[in-house]
Write a structure and sequence with these properties.
about 50% helix; about 10% strand; 23 helices; Rossmann fold; alpha/beta; 11 strands; six-stranded parallel sheet; 434 Repressor (Amino-terminal Domain); binds magnesium ion; three-stranded antiparallel sheet; binds adenosine-5'-triphosphate
């Protein structure tokens, strides 16, 4: 068993609620075995993969002691043993466990409507619960479902943590403010005289992360990152977040920080690997889940193929799908084929999606914007060499690579094998932007982009 896993299992504990204890008693009676019957331990051990008859010992956590503590419900026991005893009693552990009262969900959204993502939840469970990762980052473009996924995970595995605190960085609070809130929450408002400097505050937080198994969630981390130039750098006055992430990742403790961001904060790549830091690049929803999102807005008419085309067109982006579903219902009589016919005719994008992409686009450097234009014009995926030869031959190779990495980090382009392209909806947006810019240049009589290599090629592709 990997060391981290042993640690996670050993440190995570549960106990039954008052209502749970009554259910346990009832089920125990139904089973008809006495409290001291060895079968309780033998069966529980078997569930955890150790056969007492064959091995001569019980699985980790299974003993007379934990069984008695489980029944008494005064002290928590190892999570694995708790779940195994519940299974022997044919009880759903989730229904009898004592709810964690140390939870502050801040602005976490309601995720009662949530489709798909089984694999992603499973992977995140593996990292946060079983591998005891200290820092897990969920990355992806706007609207792809990072916040929803983090909320779902926290909700589903809340019993694994003694304390849960969720904070959004959308309004770019300084790191000291976030640290103060977290320390006060984890100390149950006992910490009044907090250290003044950042180092001291971070150390104080780590103290609590060692003391308890805590889940911290920082949502919308891109808000503290710099826009323009290169991505991943912290905004002026926000580099303390880098220090916080580094310290949480590198210092030994038993808690986990989940970070969601449109862009990968600088320095993370160095931390990934040996030490427990993981990144999940979130992609769109598959057709079934995308369709389910549509049905929350009404009923729609469309063939299997049409559904597929539609959901692919929006890259399975749940936010885009929600917006589009409402529009199809309101303007296209809930008819998918009508809408697809319309899509073919016009370069059209709904304002809300446009707004979402606008926010991302204006953060880009000039070179990044040019590459975005070029990939949209080119339509087909293109490799790095071709990109350089064809379009930006006078730009040094290393700068192009940096820009590509940066665009990937922002989830505005995708890499498939060795080629790069954009999600369809992004492509559509960029084309609209391009036309807008060219028109502006013509009006201003300042033909920068109009005379560029990219535009000549665009003309050849009948965009004008
Ligand atoms: N799996 C899902 N099932 C149903 N709805 C979802 C799912 N994932 C996301 N959504 C919905 O899509 C919308 C966008 O999701 P969310 O806010 O999580 O995106 P995000 O990636 O955090 O975006 P941003 O970068 O703007 O913060 C929300 O309304 C959310 O409820
Ligand atoms: Mg979000």
């Amino acid at each position: 068993m990997p060391q981290n896993l042993t640690f996670a299992i050993a440190m995570s504990t549960l106990k039954a609620s008052q209502h749970g204890l009554a259910r346990i008693k009832q089920k125990r009676k139904e089973k008809g075995w006495t409290i001291d019957d060895p079968r309780w331990l033998e069966e529980a051990s078997k569930i955890l993969g150790t056969d007492w008859q064959e091995e001569g010992f019980f699985a980790e956590g299974i003993s007379q002691g934990t069984w008695k503590r489980f029944l008494a419900g005064k002290l928590p026991i190892n999570t694995g043993a708790f779940k195994a005893y519940c299974l022997v009693l044919q009880l759903n552990w989730n229904e009898i466990v004592e709810r964690n009262i140390h939870q502050d969900w801040g602005e976490a959204p309601d995720v009662s409507i949530f489709y798909g993502r089984t694999q992603e939840v499973h992977l995140l469970e593996q990292w946060t619960i079983h591998e005891n990762c200290r820092l897990v980052v969920i990355l992806g473009m706007g609207g792809i479902g990072k916040t929803a996924l983090a909320a779902k995970l926290g909700q589903q595995f809340q019993h694994e943590f003694e304390y849960i605190i969720w904070r959004s960085l959308r309004n770019a609070p300084v790191v000291e403010e976030i640290l103060t809130e977290m320390i006060q929450f984890l100390s149950e408002q006992q910490e009044i005289d907090l250290p003044r400097n950042l180092d001291g505050k971070v150390l104080r937080l780590i103290y609590y992360l060692r003391l308890h198994r805590c889940l911290l969630v920082l949502d919308n981390a891109e808000a503290v990152l710099k826009s323009g130039d290169r991505t991943g750098n912290y905004r002026e006055g926000y580099s303390g977040y880098g220090q916080l992430l580094r310290c949480i990742a590198e210092t030994s403790h038993k808690s986990c920080l989940i970070l969601t961001s449109r862009e990968k904060p600088k320095g993370l790549a160095k931390l990934e690997g040996e030490i427990p830091v993981r990144c999940l690049q979130l992609t769109g929803l598959p057709t079934d889940a995308g369709r389910a999102i549509f049905f929350t807005k009404g009923s729609f008419i469309g063939s299997q193929d049409e559904w597929q085309v539609l959901i692919y067109h929006y890259g399975g982006n749940p936010l885009a799908l929600k917006i589009v579903a409402a529009a199809i219902r309101d303007f296209f009589d809930s008819n998918i084929s009508e809408f697809l016919r319309f899509l073919k005719k016009v370069t059209f994008i709904f304002d809300d999606i446009c707004d979402l992409l606008d926010k991302q686009f204006y953060r880009l450097s000039k070179l990044e914007q040019e590459i975005m234009y070029w990939l949209a014009i080119n339509r087909e995926p293109i490799n790095l060499m071709k990109l350089q030869d064809d379009f930006i031959a006078n730009v040094p190779h290393c700068e192009i690579i940096q820009a590509i990495v940066s665009l990937q980090r922002r989830s505005l382009i995708e890499k498939n094998a060795a080629e790069f392209t954009q999600q369809p909806v992004v492509m559509e947006y960029i084309i609209a932007k391009l036309v807008e810019r060219i028109c502006q240049e013509i009006t201003d009589e300042k033909m920068e982009l109009f005379q560029s290599h990219a535009w000549i090629k665009a003309t050849a592709k009948n965009y004008i």
